[in-house]
Design brief:
This protein has 333 residues and is of the alpha/beta class. Helix content is 42%, strand content 16%. The protein is built from 12 helices and 12 strands. The strands form 2 sheets. It has a 6-stranded parallel sheet with strand order 2-1-3-4-5-11, sandwiched between helices.
Length: 333
């Protein structure tokens, strides 16, 4: 059957009425066991699936948790794996959704929630939102939340300590001119990584030089431009800390294009530990945040909220750790 099977197809194949198919699928009384078994076998054979919208209209629930992302990039992909693993053995399906982003991209999650909540999903997890608070018909949890005070339950990593450890590692190797390629300024994690960078410099007695900070915004072209400007300086930095791994890998690419050898002439540290970090050549030194655990904890939190429970905390912060690989070394004498 080339088209999607309908409830009428199931009824015809099973030799029963549409009403009987509906009762069998929904476990209602009035259908013989043998008839229900025959109907369900036809359902499996044809691959028929009931409409989520129709189901929600009947029961006010859909059995689906939505994970809303701006893009399917490495960080959100790892988070999705964690959500899927946490919900794998339960009754809920996962809907990964990336809505169209309009000019500037701000507020995409509000538009997405207005389309999904109440009809397609029973709860939502939003990854790196662009707004502070969100009003929705279903429980919502934010991963890597927006900056500023928020009533939204959140799950995030300890970006401050992670950044502090990354820069401390570079200082201990002997670097004194350490640049920072920052991320999105509207995310709490980006602000914390900037603060951790500055604290590590202060702890080492090194002055903060604003000219060594470039805002990459997690956008590849912007990161490349910022990096090129930093590395072409006469007094260029000997090391770069980037706010995420995608940015750090872009830094190593620009360094190679300019003719700088990593790590001999430039050390680079990232943040996240996405799969590409260990597979790149040279392998990237980075701060590992538990991305899949972020997704798992967010899933457990949204399940508790959906069940009407009051969790002990609705703001979780998970630890990070430095993973030393091949992109960091002492500066050349």
């Amino acid at each position: 059957m080339s088209r999607r099977p309908t409830i009428h197809d199931v009824a015809r194949e099973a030799g029963v009425s549409v009403a009987t198919v509906s009762k069998a699928i929904n476990g209602r009384y009035g259908v013989k066991t043998s008839t229900a078994d025959r109907v369900l076998e036809v359902v499996r054979t044809l691959g028929y699936e009931t409409s989520l919208v129709a189901s929600s209209m009947r029961s006010r629930t859909t059995g689906v948790i939505g994970v809303l992302v701006a893009d399917f990039e490495p960080f959100s992909a790892e988070v999705l794996k964690g959500v899927g693993a946490a919900l794998r053995d339960g009754p809920f399906d996962v809907l990964a959704y990336s809505g169209a982003r309009h000019a500037g991209g701000e507020g995409w999650e509000r538009r997405s929630l207005s389309r999904l909540s109440g009809t397609l999903i029973d709860g939502a997890i939003i990854v790196t939102p662009t707004v502070i608070n969100i009003v929705a018909e279903v429980p919502v949890v934010a991963i890597d939340p927006h900056t500023g005070p928020a009533d939204l339950p959140t799950v995030e990593s300890d970006s401050f300590r992670g950044a502090q450890e990354a820069v401390r590692h570079l200082v201990e190797l002997g670097h004194r001119r350490i640049a920072f390629v920052a991320g999105r300024p509207d995310l709490r994690s980006s602000i914390a990584r900037d603060a951790g960078y500055r604290r590590a410099l202060a702890d080492a007695g090194l002055p903060f030089d604003p000219s060594l900070v470039g805002e990459g915004g997690y956008e590849a072209d912007t990161v490349r431009g910022v990096t090129a400007a930093l590395l072409r300086r006469a007094d260029r930095p000997t090391a770069v800390f980037a706010a995420n791994d995608v940015s750090a890998l872009a830094v190593t690419e620009v360094a190679a294009e300019i003719g700088l050898r990593v790590p001999r002439e430039l050390s680079v540290v990232g943040f996240d530990d996405i799969p590409d970090a260990s597979q790149s050549v040279p392998a990237l030194t980075t701060v590992r945040q538990p991305m899949q655990r972020l997704g798992g904890e967010a899933a457990r939190l949204v399940l508790a909220l959906m069940a009407g429970e009051s969790p002990e905390t609705t703001h979780l912060r998970l630890p990070t750790r430095l993973v030393t690989r091949a992109t960091t070394a002492p500066p050349e004498a």
